[in-house]
Amino acid sequence: MEAVLAVKNLTIDFVTPRGNVHALRNVSLEVPRNQIVGIVGESGCGKSTLILAALNLLAENAVISGGEVTYDERNVLAMSGAELRDIRGRKITMVFQDPMTALNPVLSIGTQMTDVQYREKGRRMVDKRAAAVEMLRRVGMADPGDQLDRFPHQFSGGMRQRIAIAMALITNPDLLIADEPTTALDVTLEAQIIHLLRQLKAGFLQGSILFVSHHLGLVAELCDAVVVMYAGEVVEQGTVHDVFHRPAHPYTQLLLACDPARILDSTRTLPTIRGGVPDLIRIPTGCVFAPRCPKAFDTCRQKAPDTETVVDGHTARCHLLAND
Could you tell me if 149 and 212 lie in one domain? Predict the structure, then answer.
């Protein structure tokens, strides 16, 4: 399928006083048109660096050692400031974790929703406000016309996230990036936001979604494909059905085993993955997951694995697959 966004062999370091942090190494993935792609992994695995690279919003100490991020057959990382301004917030938009910090507290939501339409030069303000009302209605806001002159602090967390989603979608983007949009919400509001995204994808949104989360259940419910990241590398990717029903990489298997929804017996303790994500200044020799992997053998500690095909469209980087 045609890819809205394609990441090819992306390698990014961050220069720090302690040394270079090897945040991403040879990361490749695609976001097909009209698909939802989930990215999962523990904190420190490179998820946020990847999505910031998609908008070329990396910090000043970032060094792009190789690869590219392609949108509309153009490398985002090589775009000029004018080109970036043309796609940010219009063709590629983002919903952040905390809607209270994403929204401007001193401006009404009506002002903010009309401001994001500033590229519509010939559009009257009355039409922009009408578009804002319609978008708020689509995301489930009651009496949207009466809400435009209210301020973010006058809404609940769930409503603020709905407003943030409405602002991200009002320009009808090709790609919506959702960076753990339910982390700051309780489980009830989390379910509502996921239901909202599914409704928007099914009935309104014509573009694609790149959905970043640590919540495997949400990814399984919402996404078409999933990318599993560990310590700056893609260790497995494929359709949600293939990866969740036939996980090939030991890290994916352990992540799924830690999902409370999969634990059927009563227990006072939950399973965990021993150890932690390695210091990315000093990458382990061989497979990056070998120090924590219960299935590791000598080759895992000596040589980095190649990407192996599990089935068509489902790949993983693991020596166990090469030995099958």
Answer: no
For residues 167-181, one letter each, b for 16 or more C-beta atoms within 10 angstroms of the residue's C-beta and e for the rest, the string is bbbbbebbbbbbbbb
Checking 304-313 for CB contacts under 8 A at 24+ apart, the result is: 308/248, 310/238, 310/242, 310/246, 310/248, 311/238, 311/242, 311/246, 313/238, 313/239, 313/242
Question: Shortest CA distance to 237 belongs to which of 300, 324, 313?
Answer: 313
What pLDDT does residue 120 have? 76
- CB count, 10 Å around CB of 307? 15
Percent of the chain having pLDDT more than 70?
97
Backbone angles phi, psi at 43, to 5 degrees: -60, 140
Q: Note if the pTM is more than 0.85.
A: yes
Length in residues, the chain: 324
Nearest to 228 by CA among 206, 202, 254: 254
Domain of residue 262: give its range.
3-91+171-322
Q: Per the domain annotation, does 295 fall within a domain?
A: yes
* 87 shares a domain with 37: yes
pLDDT of residue 206: 67
Closest CA to 87 of 96, 105, 75: 75
Amino acid at 120: E
Matching residue, tokens 């895992």: 300
How many distinct structural domains can be found in the chain? 2
User: 77 and 183 in one domain?
Assistant: yes
CA distance 319 to 299: 8
Q: What is the DSSP letter of 88?
A: B
Residues facing 300 on adjacent strands: none
pLDDT tens per residue, range 210-261 = 999 888 888 988 899 999 999 999 999 999 999 999 999 999 999 999 877 7
